[in-house]
Amino acid sequence: MVSKGKEKHFFLGGNTPKGFFSYYDHLVSQEAARKIYCIKGGPGTGKSSLMKRIAAQMLKRGYDVEMMHCSSDCNSLDAILIKPANIAFVDGTAPHVVDPKTPGAVDEIINLGACWNESALRIYKEDIIRLNKSISEQFSRAYVYLGAAKKLLDDVDVIQTSCINQSVYSNFLESILFHEFAELPISEVPGKIRRMFAGAITPQGVVHYLDSILDGYKVYSIQGETGTLLNEVADIAVRRGFDAECYDCPFAPGEKCDHLLIPKLNLAFTTVNRYHRYQGGEQVDLREYINGYLPERYQEALEFDRKEAERLTDRAIAMIAQAKKLHDELEGFYVPNMDFSMVEEIYQHTLDEAITML
């Protein structure tokens, strides 16, 4: 009997102070991919359902599957990657517009728009345009609130960084490097960094999949302000020829790594705060390296910044939740006007094709 494959959940895109931030180029490289299916179609046409069904079939057959969730609705999927064959399926519609880069040789378009009744949808043209505009407005307002929250959180980082005893902090970093990397030489061929998000700011609140990501790894679980610590550790691993997975902070994409995996070393680092917690691993508390008198001096500012940042984040979540309601309303125009028997045929054909490539 074939054992079930392992599933791993995370996000490739997120709602951030910079707007919608995409790491969809990090799904899988064109060179490594066996096939990338780019799925086109409107809301409610079955893109996520198709990916969920294919993922379930592949897991049943014993293949590992990475499942990338939608930050606008974490119950939906934006992409899947079947390992080790590197067969990918990705939602190619806004806001993460993905188009074929190597058509035919790597990429193939699945057009679920071919399954809808265009003449029927045309009747609701004005309603569809209105809803799309309203959804865009909700997200724009959410990003304003997240941008304001980011400024306050930046102030928290500045205060906390100024409170750290840098010499003791450096000794801590060196101790980790000694235990995990001392016997590993610098490589002539550096590793690569793959970036994504472990969590996202969604209509359901801040959601993360750390348990799925860290399963089976030796984990350092870090409390306190990490700053660029994990970015530095990732660079050290890469210089020694190891690939690294950097899971960025949704408030600082492209700037701050919140969680780090080095798969070939079976080694992981995760940060613990009010938005993401992990039970297990070797506990490390960086707050031990804070100069004792400074936090009290800045306590009022820290409390204000954190409280207001949380309030602004909650407001942004409310806007994103409202956008989700409008999106559900938009789906109401598409679902009744879809020929799902055609969608089923596409699913069966695509599943059979994928199986032959495994």
Question: What does this protein look like?
Answer:
The structure is a single chain. The protein has 358 residues and is an alpha/beta fold. Helices cover 42% and strands 24% of the residues. The protein has nine helices and 16 strands. A six-stranded mixed sheet has the order 1-5-6-7-4-8. It has a six-stranded mixed sheet with strand order 9-13-14-15-12-16, covered by helices on one side. Strand 6 and strand 7 form a beta hairpin. Helix 1 packs parallel to helix 9 and helix 3 packs antiparallel against helix 8. The longest helix is centred in the middle third of the chain and has 39 residues. It is globular, with a radius of gyration of 22 Å. The two termini are 18 Å apart. The mean pLDDT is 92.
What are the defining features of this structure?
six-stranded mixed beta sheet; 42% helix; 16 strands; 358 residues
Summarize this structure briefly.
The chain is of the alpha/beta class and 358 residues long. It is 42% helix and 24% strand. The chain contains 9 helices and 16 strands.
